[in-house]
Amino acid sequence: MRRRISATTLALGVALALPAHADEGMWMPSQLPQLAKPLREAGFKGKPQALADVTAAPLSAVVRAGGGTGAFVSPDGLILTNHHVAYGVIQYNSKPERNLIDEGFTAGDRSAELPANPDFRVLVTVGYDKVTDRVLKDTTGKTGRAYFDAVDRASKAIVAECEQEAGVRCSVANMYYGTDFYRIRQLELRDIRLVYAPPRAIGNYGDEIDNFMWPRHTGDFTLLRAYVGKDGKPAAYSTDNVPYRAPAHLSLAKDGPNAGDYAMLAGYPGTTYRHRTAAEFDEQINWTLPARVAVFDQLIDVIEAAGKQDADAKTRYAAQLQSLKNNRKRAAGELEGLRRSDAVRVRAEDERGMLASPAAAKERADIDALAASIAGGSAVRERELLLNLFGAQSQLMRAAIMLERLRVESAKPDAERESGYQARDHALIEGFLKQVQRRYAPDVEKALLTVLLTRYQQLPDAQRLPGFDAAFGRTPTALTQALDTLYAGTKLGDETERLSRFAAAREGKPVAADPLIDFAATLVPVQLALEQERKTREGEQLRLRPAYMRALFAWREQQGRALYPDANGTLRVSFGRVDGFSPRDGVQYTPVTTVAGIVQKNTGEVPFDAPKPLLDAIAKGDFTGTEDPALKTQTVNFLTNLDTTGGNSGSPVLNARGELIGLNFDSNWESVSASWMFDPRYKRAVHVDMRYLRWLMGKVYPAPHLLDEMGAK
Asked: In which residue ranges of the chain is pLDDT below 50?
């Protein structure tokens, strides 16, 4: 029988081996009591044991907001998150004649707060329990797809049981690559409203030029509010709903951070890959990242060109363009950073040392089998990249495929349906279908798909799919004709047409004919065949990776290094200090910026077009109540060495007393590669100083009623 090492055992070993200041690490809440000594030595004034309880302050105030993080800052459901996390909400409520992206927004009272896009969610974690034995109970003796299915069935059963409570969204999280599994229970808040957003030239000052750069001067924050039904339970948007009573909320600190001060961050980091194999590191650096940059460049060019010709298209695709630019720059920065850290060589040497250790010898057969499975997946990597983007970068095409897949899955018992198409997912699917027309223009979508499918047509025959070849042809002319025909005849651009088909699809009934729906019916069987291959491969890797992790844990323990679980979208905590850095010889960055930098960067043109009210307020120099006592001016952003990645956007940054001092929104260029390799020389996180927020909302774009609500006036 295979030995199992639980996450608890891993954490205990790590805690005993940690150096005094463990700045590296995205820790599960349950691990923090074992880190009491390094927490205290770093400067934490609270009780480490209290950080293990996700239902108590401060962690109960930290929420999943859209694709990032947020935090309650008042008892009445007021949520602080990033401008870029809420960008889709702002864009959803914007029109050419009322451009909230450029102008900003302040709700004068609660009746003026604007509803978010229907698929925007805020999740409040209320449970975090280990379910490893139950998930793995029926996996003994199974391999490949059978192993995948055993884990999938057990996970779905746990989720279904958990979600019998109304208003709760549950999931099963995989920790340490199949070694441990946790049931995550979250309250799903569906009525979210826009309360306050600064103008673009504050919330996104510097745009892509400054993205992932230091020094920064960006007010990347927005306020939302969560509403529930009068019975206090989660509900869809209604004017009768009432503000959600938060289980806890964070208090804004009156003072600000200083170099060397303790700092702690909680949030929902997306995905890290630090415990992947040397072969996966090599592929990421030498193929995946360069390929992503190239295709993202093409997609960005399409949307920017359309926006120059059509103001309406520019607004509709603003959020998608922002996301593409961010992902493109992240990929380029990750590539540069991993090369700077010589990651291929370093990881290969590290793995060779691990494989030579006694612990690895016991696991060698499974480790070798894992390497073979990973190599098999690499053979279709180009196709996988393009097909993933094919769905993600379209609206109507994605809607058609989603509706046809929903029809197919709905004919099965709910427990046997693919995740994402069960009854629990209907509200999210409907929410997506309701907002399509605000993010879609036919010529732009056809141009985006042309980019992706042209690249697909250039794939070697071994990666081609007969279903795709039949649908789109093998020449540019055939592709253009196919797309023009599909989009000329479709009615899915109309919300009522989409929703009427959704009503049929969710019951497993035939969906009314439409060129895109009929087309999707030919693509879904192709999708299902590819999923069979993928799940077979993923099941085998899910079975084999624990062997690699057991060897890696023993190797890290021998080295005295930390082994926390890779990030996977679940609640994590990191701690460290306010700290500058030296990116290269002769350059030393201080950890704080001020409003002087806004003026210095201002050109009057996008993206450095600081608004006149901001420039006037800076010139006036009234920083009473928010001025840094040492610098004698208004601070804007600051740096820490906290361990973060994508998904940590909007994470609250707390001082040693648990007070809110900052809002995480970015990393420096030199540390974008931290999702794969943590380099303490360069890893820094960039935060909005809460004193800047208080000053903006008090004296530049005033919202005194909101400052009062936050207790920050």
From this structure: 1-3, 7-8, 10-21
Specify the amino acid at residue 180.
Answer: D
> Which residue carries 């019951």 as its tokens?
507
**428 CB-near residues (< 8 Å, 6+ apart):** 119, 121
Strand partners, 584: 587
Give how far Cα 109 sits from Cα of 164, 196, 235, 367, 704, Å.
Answer: 36, 11, 21, 60, 11
166-221 pLDDT per residue, tens: 999 999 999 999 999 999 999 999 999 999 999 999 999 999 999 999 999 999 99
Alpha-carbon gap, residue 372 to 543, rounded angstroms: 13
Spatial separation of the C-alpha atoms in residues 78 and 703, rounded to whole Å: 14
Report the b/e string of 305-333 with b at 16+ CB within 10 A.
Answer: ebbeebeebbbbbbbbbbbbbbbbbbbbb
Buried b / exposed e across 650-668, counting CB within 10 Å, b at 16+? Answer: bbbbbbbebbbbbbbbbbb
Q: pLDDT value at position 451?
A: 98
For the chain, the residue count is 713
Instruction: Name which of 676, 681, 712, 677 is nearest 694 in CA terms.
Output: 712
Residue with tokens 């006037």: 616
Angstrom distance (rounded) from CA 181 to CA 565: 11
- Structure-token match 């109960």, residue found: 60
Q: Which helix (H) or strand (E) holds 572?
A: strand 572-577
ω into 607 cis (within 30 of 0):
yes
Contact residues for 621 (Cβ-Cβ < 8 A; gap 6+): 633
Nearby residues of 221 by Cβ (< 8 Å), 6 or more positions away? 80, 81, 82, 83, 198, 203, 663, 665, 688, 693
Total Cβ atoms within 10 A of residue 250 = 23
Sheet of 660-667: strands edge to edge?
A: 572-577, 262-267, 652-654, 660-667, 685-689, 635-640, 592-594
Alpha carbons 338 and 343: distance in angstroms, whole number = 5
- Output the pLDDT for position 561: 83
Instruction: Kindly state the tokens that stand for 665.
Output: 């929104």
Strand, helix or coil for residue 450: helix
* Cα–Cα distance measured from residue 68 to residue 88, given in angstroms and rounded to the nearest whole number: 12
Closest CA to 437 of 479, 484, 497: 497
pLDDT tens per residue across span 221-265: 999 999 999 999 999 999 999 999 999 999 999 999 999 999 999
Catalytic residues: 84, 220, 649
End-to-end CA distance of the chain: 62
Which residues are 78's β-sheet partners?
A: 225
Task: With H, G, I as helix, E, B as strand and everything else as coil, classify residue 678.
Answer: coil
DSSP, collapsed to helix, strand or coil, labels residue 512 as coil
Residues 666, 216 contacting (CB under 8 angstroms): yes
Q: Which residue has the tokens 């009473």?
A: 624
DSSP codes joined into one string, 257-302: --TT-EEEEEE------TTS-HHHHHHIIIIIHHHHHHHHHHHHHH
Tokens of 599: 């003026």
Nearest to 681, CA basis, from 340, 392, 176: 340
User: What is the pLDDT at residue 713?
Assistant: 75
The residues with which 654 forms a beta bridge, in sequence order, are: 264, 660
pLDDT at res. 8 = 46
Distance CA 104, CA 336 (A): 35
Token pair listed for 686: 């960039």
Instruction: Give the three-class secondary structure for 379.
Output: coil
| Helix count and strand count (H, E) for the chain | 26, 20
